[in-house]
Amino acid sequence: MTIDQVTSSAFAGNFGSPTQLIIVLIIVLILFGGKRLRSLGSDLGNAIKGFKDSMSKTEAEKEEEAKQEAQKVLEQNPTHTTQTTNVTADKTEHKQ
């Protein structure tokens, strides 16, 4: 076996196996140290939390805009709501 064959077989297919992940984590721990990793983890968690909050606010804003547009349509065409109410009243009268 040549060196190229050994390195290609070592990195082909099984990248991400538990043994390789443990080795990578140990190297990262040695390079950065425990305190720095805790602060990096905290910063990453805060970034993810902020992203999720901004996404949920965006969805809430979209819902609010849809409600406002529906209200404008109802204000511009009040006969539409009256017709809907009358149809509902007719249906309940037939059931009795």
Low-pLDDT runs of 5+ residues are none
- Domain count: the total is 1
Strand content: under 5%
Order of helices and strands: HHHH
Total count of helical runs of at least 4 residues:
4
Molecular shape: elongated
Determine the fraction of residues in helical runs and give it as a percent range.
over 70%
Alpha-beta classification: mainly alpha
Radius of gyration: 31 Å
Overall average pLDDT = 76
Q: How far is the N terminus from the C terminus?
A: 89 Å
Largest sheet: none
Number of strands: 0
What does this structure look like?
The protein has 96 residues and is mainly alpha-helical. It has one domain (14-95). 89% of the residues lie in helices and 0% in strands. It is built from four helices and no strands. The longest helix has 43 residues, at 34-76. The radius of gyration is 31 Å and the shape is elongated. The termini are far apart.
Present the secondary structure layout.
Elements: H1 3-11, H2 18-32, H3 34-76, H4 78-95
List keywords for this structure.
96 residues; mainly alpha; elongated
Short recap of the structure:
The chain is mainly α. The chain contains 4 helices and no strands. The radius of gyration is 31 Å and the shape is elongated.
